[in-house]
Every structure is written in C-alpha cells, then in structure tokens.
Amino acid sequence: MSKVEDAIDAALLAQLRSTVETLESIAADRRLLAALTPDERKRLLIAVGAVYIPDQAARRRMVKAVVRLRKVERTQRDEHVREETGIRELRRKPVFTTPNVFPPPATEQGEPLGEPGPEARTHLADERHCYACKTHFTEVHHFYDQLCPSCAEFNFRKRTELADLTGRVALLTGGRVKIGYQAGLKLLRAGAHLIVTTRFPRDSAMRYASEPDFDQWGHRLEVFGLDLRHTPSVEAFCREMLSTRTRLDFIVNNACQTVRRPPEFYAHMMEGENAALHTMPEHVRRLVGAYEGLRGYHLLPGVPQGALATSLSEVAGLTHAAALSQVALLPEELQAQKSL
Fold this sequence. Notes:
Elements: H1 3-6, H2 10-28, H3 38-52, H4 56-83, H5 86-92, E1 122-129, E2 136-140, H6 149-159, E3 169-173, H7 178-189, E4 193-198, H8 201-209, H9 214-217, E5 221-225, H10 231-244, E6 250-253, H11 263-266, H12 270-274, H13 282-285, H14 289-295, H15 305-311, H16 316-319, H17 321-324
Parallel strand pairs: 3-4, 3-6, 4-5
Antiparallel strand pairs: 1-2
C-alpha cells in the first residue's frame, strides 16, 4: 500500500474506487444519466467538473500534496534498496568481523559469495551523487550504497586485494581500533613486519592476540605506547627506531583525534594499562616486550590526577602514553562526566 493510500480512510478509499467504476459506466453509456432528475444530473456534472478542473488554490494544494507523498514513497524505496547493501549489513552487526581472515567460500559456479550477477542489480528511483567522483548514478552496487557502479567495483576489488609484503617493515600509528586496526591486520596478513603505536598498547596487544589467525603473524608484530600530541616523546621514539631498526619501508599515518574525548571516556582502560606485566598472557606480553623494555618495568602505582602532569617524565607521551589521556586539558574536564 502506498503512502497516498495510507493517508486516506479505508472506507472512503473503497467509495472512491466504486465511484471510478460508476463514472466509467456512465462514460460508456450516457443514457444512464436519463434516470436522474435534472437537479441530480446538475449536481453530478458540477461535482465531476470540480474534481477534473478545481479552482486554482485547491489545484495547487492537491498537486503539492501528491508530489510530497510521492517523494516520500521514492525516498523510502531508495532507502530500502540501500539498506540491502553489504556495507550497511556490516554496520548493523554488533561486533565487526575483520576481513581477509580466511579466503571466502566459493559458489558452485566458482564465483565468490556476495557478488550477484547483472540480473540481481537494483536501481534507485532518484539519482544520487557518487561519494568519490560526484557522478550521478541510480544503479546500486551490491556492497557500497554511496558509490557509482564504477567507483564501487574499483573499491570493492581493492577491499580484498593483497600483495606479498614479506620482508617489509611498516610503521602504523593509531592501530588499536577501527580503520587503523583493520589496516594493521591487512599488513600482517600480507607478510609485513608491523610496528604499531597507540596510547593504549596493552589493550591493542590483546585485540590483535584475539584474532583466530594470530599464530600465523603474531611473531611479526610489535606494539608501542605513544601519544603523538607530546612532541618530545615522538622525537624520542624516532631516535629509538633509527638506532634499533635496519629498515623502514613505509609509514601509515593513521592516528588522529577527529573527536576529542574527555578523560572519563578512557578511565576504564587504565587498570589494564597500569597492571603488573606478569598478569598478561605470555603471547600478549611478547607483543609489548620491546616497548616495556624501553620504558622500564616499574609503572607508576597510582598518581593523583592533580599531580599527574608534574610527575611524568620528559618523554611522558612514550613512557606513560595511557596516563596522558587522564590529564584534564579543559576546565570542564576537572568534573567527572557521569554520562560517559
């Protein structure tokens, strides 16, 4: 049922449909009008004329209402089409499954699952701008809902594309969660030796170690704590890399605070970052071994927040990266935000 039908009472809608049939019968045989009195015929013709050619104000109102309802219908149809794409399906999942863990199963025809043929393609009622090239498009890709078919197919192929990076060394900043984490996994699964920096190294190490194929690439992963907002710490980290590494093939500069979080947002992570190292599983400890050796094994047992800024070392962003997240930088951050 359309939105126009939804807006009309069901009984009245049935009467309208019956009226249409009656008028069609009269148009086919005008002798039926002879059964009416002159006054009844006049009422009928005036009513039909008012419907066919209403006054200007009524006509504008009717046209606007119909256009508005049709637009809502098209928008809802298009939204339903976009909701069926693969990328939106992934977003609806409570836990994101990392790609490229194992090769996808193939269909009987030998085609990868999730790639329907031309007969399964869907189209939008209204054109949209491609997010990448700005071209107008109506055909919707099976995975991407905001890209034209050309850009969507190119990006979809690149999404699962791999290259042999055996022997290469990569440095990835901000590799704990989201796109940085996905980039880290892809580099590791491609054979690279990966150095990850993050403000929360232990949490990051636990995440990587929980992957089902960790035993295949875990020996090529190192995780360092580093707060890139602290310039002296960044310089110290660079000196460490220059003195201990023989090569660095590429750097992925992913770390960035697009949305700044108050200290309370990260408070729950401090227990794990400040816990004794031996409480972590052995395979996780190996990931942060070089970092813990660099900063020393004696963590601050518990520094009051007011004294934190003066208690940290000159390279606090390296030795106490997680602790810097608890330093209040704005007046309102001195008050605990219970809503978080």
